[in-house]
Design goal:
alpha+beta, Penicillin binding protein transpeptidase fold, Beta-lactamase, 5-stranded mixed beta sheet, single chain, 24 strands, 6-stranded antiparallel beta sheet, 767 residues
Length: 767
Amino acid sequence: MYVTKDGKIQSDKQQTYKIKRKNKKHPLLRKVIKTFFITLLILFLLIIAVGGYAAYKIYNIAKDAKLSKNDLAIKYENSVIKDMKGNTLGVLNGNENRESISLSEMPEYLPKAFISIEDERFYEHKGVDIKRTLKATYTYIANKGNSPFGGSTITQQLVKNLTQEKEDTWQRKVREMVRAYYVEQEMSKEEILELYLNLIFLGDTVYGVQKGSNYYFSKDAKDLSLAESAFLAGINHSPNYYNPFIENNEQVLENIKTRTKIVLDKMHELGNINTEEEYTKALNEVEQGLKFKQGAFPQTVFSYHTDAAINQIIAQFQELHDWTYEQAKLYLSSGGFTIYTTQDPTMQAKMQEEFNQEKYRRTAYDKNGNLQQSQASMVLIDHKTGYVLAICNRFDKKTDAFGFNIATDGTRQTGSSMKPLAVLAPAIDKGIITAATVFDDNPTSFNNGTYNPKNYGYTYKGLITVRDAIAYSQNIPMVKAMCLLTPGESIKFLKSVGITSIDEVNDNVLPLALGGLTYGVTPLQMAGAYAAIANDGLYIKPTFYTKVVDSQGNIVLEADQTKTQVISKEAAYVVKEILTQPVKTGTSTNCTVEGMSVGAKTGTTNNDYDRWFCGFTPYYTATVWYGYDSSATITGWATNPAGQIWTGVMRSVHSGLEPKTFQETKPENVVEVEVCKKSGFLASSYCKRYGTSYTEYFVKGTEPVQTCPYHSYAKVCTQSGLLANPNCPSTRSVYGRGEYIGNSNLWQTSSYYYKPKNIPLQVCTIH
């Protein structure tokens, strides 16, 4: 039973009927309500999903965006650069006109002007001004992608200037906001403001308020008036638009007046000007026209060596701290460091003296008919330490800071100077060839007739040892040796000695033996690779500096000198001895250094576009490239100009040094064996008689054990003319010369053998 509100009693059946009847009265309403709540639930779930996804994306961006104080630690002190003798080479500021100063060295109104116009709640927010950001976002949407102002705080602008991230995406903006927050946790407001005012771009090549003051008013920042401070703050968003030094600048000067007054008005509104009199005076100064006076900025021009040292340090800072180039450069130039380079002032001066000689200045027309001025680059290394002692580029005076550096950036084809690196060193180290291995130097086709290299001058020498093939720079024997080594193994070795410009796909071909590369090699890379041979097979990554020290004497950074034993010291010694042959009898007989062993190799590319000379003594390794910026044929030289430069410099830097030879450091496991240069086998008495025997160096275990089959001797029966047997009553001695039998001119392997010539093969049958 059921009691109603009015006190009546109804049965359960009556009550159930009433409920059913009531529900039937509003079926549509029920459906609408049900649909509404389901829709609301779906929207709620979508919001959670979208919000969760957005939060996930933001989290992934934010987790990698943290900046520490170390990333921003700038002392605003100039860094000093010294050579290896302790002489000061200069003060670092690079190609930017920047001089850092502290807040205490700035006038009162300069920081206030920037805060007023750029970030009025600077001292209130934690890196991101939420109110300004929301307003900027609303304005951006309302104006369909345009907004008269941005939402970035001074801290955010500092982050953007340091990271140099400029892409216009929401991800970048989120990253910037997160980094700004972290910066505010690590640094005080004063530190942030000081760094910002020293970092900002203020037009032309001017960075920071000190240089900005110098540039626009020829005065220090501390002497700026209120109006002048407002001008600098006002142009921050578009400095070049307000440059008063451009021609026909009447409109620019009007724009400057308008913009500067806006800044002064904002400062006045915020109470950042002490008195009404100062405000009025500043307005009058602007109205009458600011007294602009352009300051001169003599550019600091370092040597190419110093440029390379600075860039090497910056690159190492980037790698260590995951910094951008801008961060690393600012840290180095403004950290009050002492940078110790490896530049030897005496050697640098001697090299420059050689480069100053007028005889090296030539002109030629490139293939497009443009007149070119000859250029050159030289790198000198102490191969025992890996220190680059001196470099020179070009024959004209260096006038730019951090310009193109041929030594470190100029990749050129190497020609035959690549042979000792691509073929000789790795093949001897692996025991594939020896210095005495003989190849038939004749016109030969490779790869089933698709590759047909030629010798320089189309001269062929027949049977020739590896030593003499290098001495006279014969191409065919080196390609045959590459077939045995394989280009893949050659590439592995080249990369191990710092030649990173190798293309592992396109350079994996036989022409690699002759320096046929896709991208070429820099003089520095060639010097580093040859230095590994000179240094008993130990490759040391070339470096232009030793250490960076802070003002307290603490070492902040030391040179990253990777050391790798790329070939055995025994193999390196054999290669060194082979490379003395071009200087003794081959292509480089003019390139001697008195009292010193010299190992060297020339290089000439197609059409005589490039000339190389790479060589070493027991003391130093040096490489020289000579050519033109735009390839042009090198003519008018009786001898290789690169070799002349190398010889002139090396004779000068070795003057007064104790004489040394490679033999003084010959490893125990290098043996000397007398061999025949026609076969590469052990010399017989007949080899000596015919003048083909000589002493060669071998890694122990690779020396020949068979006697020369080329020079033959036999006893012949005088009656039959056949090889004598023990019963022949009368014999005579016959001397024969072996005949080289190769596969064919379609050369695939190194297999060869000899058969006697002029000596019968059958034994006498008469007796």
